[in-house]
Amino acid sequence: MAGLLGGGGGLRGHGELPLTADINVTSLVDVAFVLLIIFMITAPIMQGGVDVRLPRAAARPLEPKAGLVISLDRDGKIYLDQAALSYEDFRATFGAFVRTKRPAGVYLRADGRVPYANVVQVLAVIRQSGVSDVGLVAEPETLER
């Protein structure tokens, strides 16, 4: 009976394996893969950006690619990528921004409800900064009206 209870041999008997302190990597990899899948699913949803109702055009629509996106919302706010600026701040800082960043392309997204004069003013600032090729982003026109 004393041999079954340990008999003074401590907590480990002669036939037991030694105690190891290893990290269970399998569960760590499982958690990492679950987080990766969650981020892959939610990343496209989070790219909403600035709320702009683009005008419709019959021409082939231009989608902004890897360049600088300037958005003009219906309240007249100008967004340089995601940063909101007033017209005065945009006019004062855009030239220096283009000289330092040197974007591959500049794309202007203007809300269809914005007065044409505001779009022309923003376009003039872009052209004065040395950018000669500006893409105007539009929604594709549907056949039903």
Keywords summarizing the entry:
elongated; five-stranded mixed beta sheet; 3 helices; alpha/beta; Nucleotidyltransferase, domain 5; 145 residues; 7 strands; two-stranded parallel ribbon
Structure commentary:
- By secondary structure, the chain is of the alpha/beta class.
- The protein has a domain at 56-140: 2-Layer Sandwich (Nucleotidyltransferase, domain 5).
- It has three helices and seven strands.
- The strands form two sheets. Strands 4-3-2-5-6 form a five-stranded mixed β-sheet.
- Helix 2 packs parallel to helix 3 (116-128).
- The protein is elongated.
> Strand sequence of the main sheet, in spatial order?
4-3-2-5-6
Q: Provide the residue-averaged pLDDT.
A: 76
Our estimate of the beta-strand percent is 15-25%
H/E series, N to C? Answer: HEEEEHEHEE
CATH architecture annotation name of the domain at 56-140: 2-Layer Sandwich
- Quick one: overall form? elongated
Count of extended strands: 7
